[in-house]
Structures are given as structure tokens and as C-alpha cells.
Design brief:
Layout lengths: L1 E9 L6 E5 L7 E2 L1 E2 L4 E9 L1 E10 L10 E4 L14 E6 L2 E3 L20 E4 L1 H4 L12 H6 L1 H7 L3 E4 L3 E2 L12 E5 L6 H13 L3 E6 L9 H10 L28 H17 L3 E4 L2 H4 L2 H15 L5 E4 L17 E3 L1 H11 L6 H8 L12 E4 L8 H7 L4 H17 L3 E5 L25 H19 L8 E7 L4 E7 L5 E7 L5 E7 L5 E5 L4 E5 L3 E6 L3 E7 L1
């Protein structure tokens, strides 16, 4: 069966556009422009797979006036790596992305306030294979879902998936915004991974770059200044052509950059059933009006299912998630800097600790407004930070456990960077750095994993963590002990007593305890009775004890 397939390119101020493709033996097919700036043509095609490009008379300032350039369709959903052509699939007379059939859309997914997020880079999340140069793919992440379920996390945050140049990258140089990164596998492989996550009650958040693109991205070649700023707003923090969300085309009544990114966000939610977006470099985007609009778009498309919009806004500003702010949450960078410094023994500042454990003191409003982490892809693993200060072995693992306890009991949504849960030790690098899964064979590393596993379970199942309540009821600057209570109105109570010193504190008395009666100490699994609102306990160096109200 032959059907007319329409090709379209929005290029409102360009003089001419032609279509070239495998279906025309790469001979030009002229396209006609309508009054909305869309060049269109129809081609009779049978079902199958085709490659194509657009040939455009460019209006970009870095090319000769009206110079002809060949570009990939900015809306191409697949790009052939070897030929750098757009790939078009036709089935039953209609363009499709793939033939994947979703199986688990009916599974309930956790709300934002109950999330424990696991950040991963697809290429480096594989491991254990004989070929040390093999890069991870979607199918390898799928093979490790049982591991993630054992850990207990209920959301993964995938570092950028949009097609980038070359074979290896963190993905912060997107070239083709609608195409999934080819080196990770097929679009169906990605959908299968997301579908199987949903089957296990795991939400899938994607890291997306809407501040800038790679310089070779097709829109830069069509008419650079129509979609992008002519020059970087801040050259010190410029990673490529920056989208211009202020530019309004009065003639056509549209914001070009907003329309393109809006289409892209809707596509990733509708086509890939994603459950949230982390917006890279949101401070550099800097346009609250645009961000309000794009977040509203995500909620409209997601409908009744939960969708979490997280800004990377560094240095942080609580207005990004405030009453009038656009985002649901933001990365809590001050938490990272404060907690890591205290775990390493660089300083002890009770007020600073209280500020990051209770983000309300920094102007944030609640549990979902911050995402807390001990590290992420932008920082060294904790074990590296410890090693840099001469802290190794048991001392390092003790501090890692203290950090995990603080992260899992602070106000906010906790996030684990892949491998941190068992003591991965690699420094930050943009080169390939696959997880060393063999570390789990070591007793200390496996013990840390089990500790994380227990904390994740505690975090998800104790509803005191779903509320903003926190009370710092015991502060002792001399011994460097801080104790706080998390609770809800239904009677759940959790107390954390943290020793930030390198001293063993025998028979330490904690005053002003929240309630008298029976408490269960979670880390060492024993019961204790309190009276006169006091408790006496041994606190090891750099240790947190966690007490649950019985």
C-alpha cells in the first residue's frame, strides 16, 4: 500500500527548502511554504524505513547569506549515526517511532513526597562484563532492575538521553532533541526499560537540557538567532548556543524557542511515558515565565499521573520552588557542601547543619521542594573526598553511613548517585568511569549497601518523613552532637542523634527527648525506655543513631 506522507519544516524567514531522501535517490523535492512559515511537501511511500534530510537556504549569521545547508529534521525521532541522516519509519501508512506496545501503564506509581531517587548514567551503569571497554545500554540497566528493587529505590533519574555527537558523553551537549541516544540502544529498548520500571513501581525521571544545544544542532543552521541568543548571556557559564525564551515573533504570534521545547517536553512524556524532568542549568535559563509555562505543560500532558519537575538551580534560590516559583523541586546543593564538609571533619557549625537538614530555614516550603544528595555526577564520590583527607577503611565507611542517615532523614527528597550506596570511590570525570560492581563482594561495601537498603525502607514506609515537621531538641557544640525529631500528626516519630566528632562518647546523655516510653533503636536493633525526657546511649565517632517511637 502506498500512502502520501507529509514532510514539514518550520523555517518562517528562510527563502527555500527542499527535501532529499533515500526515497528520491537523494534528488531534491521542492517544498512550499504556508502562511505560518511551514515548508511542506507530500511523498508517496510504502511501509518501510527511509533516510532523509532537509536542504535549507540558511539565515544564520555565521554562514554566507542564503547559503544552502543540509540539516537533519529538528523533529527527527531517530538519527542514523553513520550517515547523520534522519530516519523515518512508516507502518500502516503512518510515521511511527517504533512498534513497542506498553504493558504496565496501569501500575500505581509513588507520589513525589515518597520518592527515593537513584541517579544513573546509562553508559557507566553496566559492569561485570569481560570487555572493560563495553559501554552500557538500556538493556544492561534493565538487567539491574532487580538490584535496584533490592536496594528499594522507587525512582531513577537518567542522565540525558537525547542524541549527542560521538560515542560517549554525559549528554549535556544535545544535538537532536527528539531522538534517543543511539549508542544506548533502540527506542523500543528505552521504552522496555521504562515499562519494566513502572511494572516495579519505579518512576523514571529524565535529565533534560533546555538551556542550550550542541552547536551543530539543526536549528542553529536554519536561522540561529530565531531560536537562540546571538551571544551567550554569561560567557563563563556557556556550554553552547543558548535558547532565547524572550524572543517573540509578532508576525506569527509565537515564541519560537518555547514552542520547540514545549513540543519536545510533550513528546518525551507522551512517547516515552516519563514521570519527571530535571532541568539542567535552570539558573542560566533564568526565565521564570517560560519555566512556569513548561511546568504547566508537563502537568497537562501527564494528566492524573504524578510528574515531578526539578531544577538544577546553582547557587540555589528558594524562589525557584516558592509560592510564585515555577518548579516542584530543586537540587539542594548547599546540603551537599555542608554535609560533606562535616563528614570530612573540615568544620562543625550547628546552625549550618540545621539550615540544610531543615530547608524551611532557607526559605523552602516543604518536602518536595529540595532534592538532597551526598554526591551526584558533578562531584566526587564520598570515598574519594575521604581519601583526599587521609580517611580510609572503617573510618570512611562509618562516615558514609552517617551521611546516608542524615540524607534519608532530612526534609526533602533523597537522591543517590549510582554506586554511592556501596562505596564506589571514583573521582568525577567526563571520561568513561563504569561502576565497579565487584566492590559489593567486600564485607565493608556490602555492609554499607545493607545500611542504605534499610534506610531506604525506613524512609519510604515511615510517614513522618512525608511532612515538614522537624525539631532540633538537643544541641551540644562542645561534643559536636546534634539531635532532631521528625514526626507527623498521626503519631509517627523518628529521632536522629548524630555525633560529628572523632571521639567515642560513652554513656552520653541526650536531654529534652520528645517523649517518654519505649523506643526502638534502628541501627543496632534494640529497645530502650526513656523517662524524664532523657536517654543515655553510647555514640561511636561519626555515628548516627536512629530511634523509632513504638
Amino acid at each position: 500500500m502506498i500512502n502520501p506522507i507529509e514532510f514539514e519544516l518550520f523555517a518562517p524567514y528562510n527563502k527555500a527548502v527542499s527535501l532529499i531522501g533515500s526515497f528520491s535517490n537523494w534528488e531534491e523535492i521542492p517544498m512550499e511554504k504556508d502562511d505560518q512559515g511551514n515548508f511542506k511537501t507530500k511523498v508517496e511511500l510504502t511501509d518501510g524505513i527511509y533516510q532523509y534530510k532537509f536542504r535549507v537556504q540558511s539565515k544564520s549569521w555565521f554562514l554566507e547569506p542564503d547559503q544552502w545547508v543540509d540539516i537533519v529534521d529538528p523533529y527527527a525521532t531517530d538519527v542514523d549515526r553513520s550517515t547523520q541522516n534522519g530516519v523515518l519509519r512508516i507502518k500502516n501508512g503512518q510515521p511511527i517511532v517504533d512498534t513497542y506496545v506498553w504493558q504496565h501503564d496501569d501500575k500505581p506509581l509513588p507520589p513525589d513526597h515518597a520518592l527515593v531517587i537513584y541517579e544513573m548514567h546509562i553508559a557507566d551503569f553496566s559492569g561485570g562484563e569481560p570487555d572493560q571497554n563495553r559501554r552500557g545500554k538500556f538493556k544492561h540497566a534493565l538487567e539491574k532492575l532487580d538490584y535496584l528493587c533490592d536496594l528499594g529505590i522507587n525512582a531513577i533519574e537518567l542522565m540525558p538521553l537525547q542524541e549527542f555527537p560521538g560515542e560517549y558523553s554525559w549528554g549535556y551537549n544535545p544535538c537532536h532533541f527528539f531522538a534517543a541516544e543511539t549508542s544506548y540502544g533502540s527506542t523500543a529498548d528505552l521504552k522496555h526499560l521504562i515499562d519494566e520500571c513502572h511494572a516495579r513501581g519505579i518512576r523514571v525521571l529524565i535529565d533534560s537540557i533546555y538551556n542550550h544545544s550542541e552547536s551543530a544542532s539543526p536549528l542553529t543552521q536554519i536561522d540561529h538567532d530565531y531560536w537562540y541568543c546571538h551571544q551567550p548571556k554569561d560567557p563563563e557559564y556557556s556550554w553552547g548556543p543558548e535558547f532565547n525564551y524572550e524572543h517573540y515573533d509578532e508576525k506569527l504570534g509565537t515564541y519560537p524557542a518555547r514552542k520547540f521545547i514545549g513540543d519536545n517536553v510533550r513528546f518525551w512524556i507522551e512517547e516515552y511515558h516519563t514521570d519527571g524532568i530535571r532541568y539542567d542549568a535552570a539558573r542560566q535559563i533564568g526565565n521564570y515565565d517560560f519555566m512556569h509555562w513548561i511546568v504547566e505543560e508537563t502537568k497537562l500532558v501527564a494528566g492524573s499521573k504524578p510528574f515531578y519537575n526539578i531544577a538544577e538551580y546553582v547557587p540555589e534560590d528558594s524562589s525557584i520552588t516558592g509560592f510564585d516559583g515555577p518548579m516542584d523541586g530543586c537540587w539542594h546543593e548547599s546540603f551537599y557542601h555542608c554535609i560533606v564538609a562535616h563528614l570530612c571533619g573540615d568544620r562543625f557549625d550547628i546552625e549550618e547543619l540545621k539550615n540544610v537538614l531543615d530547608c524551611k530555614r532557607q526559605g523552602f516550603m516543604g518536602v518536595t521542594n529540595v532534592v538532597n544528595y551526598l554526591t551526584n555526577h558533578d562531584h566526587n564520590h564520598l570515598m574519594t573526598e575521604f581519601a583526599n583527607r587521609g580517611i580510609f577503611d572503617d573510618s570512611a565507611f562509618k562516615r558514609a553511613k552517617l551521611g546516608a542517615a542524615l540524607m534519608m532523614t532530612a526534609i526533602g527528597v533523597p537522591m543517590i548517585w549510582m554506586g554511592e550506596e556501596f562505596g564506589e570511590y571514583k573521582s568525577k570525570t567526563i571520561e568513561q568511569a563504569k561502576i565497579d560492581w565487584s566492590l559489593l563482594d567486600n564485607d565493608s561495601n556490602h555492609s554499607l549497601f545493607e545500611y542504605y537498603k534499610g534506610l531506604v525502607d525506613l524512609r519510604k514506609n515511615n510517614h513522618a518523613f512525608y511532612h515538614e515537621n522537624i525539631d532540633f531538641f538537643h544541641e551540644d557544640p562542645e561534643t559536636q552532637v546534634l539531635a532532631y525529631c521528625r514526626w507527623n500528626e498521626e503519631g509517627s516519630r523518628i529521632v536522629v542523634i548524630a555525633n560529628f566528632s572523632d571521639n567515642f562518647l560513652a554513656g552520653y546523655r541526650v536531654t529534652n527527648f520528645p517523649a517518654n516510653g519505649t523506643w526502638h533503636e534502628w541501627t543496632h536493633n534494640y529497645e530502650v525506655e526513656t523517662d524524664d525526657n532523657n536517654i543515655m546511649t553510647d555514640l561511636s565517632e561519626y555515628e548516627a543513631k536512629v530511634f523509632l517511637w513504638q
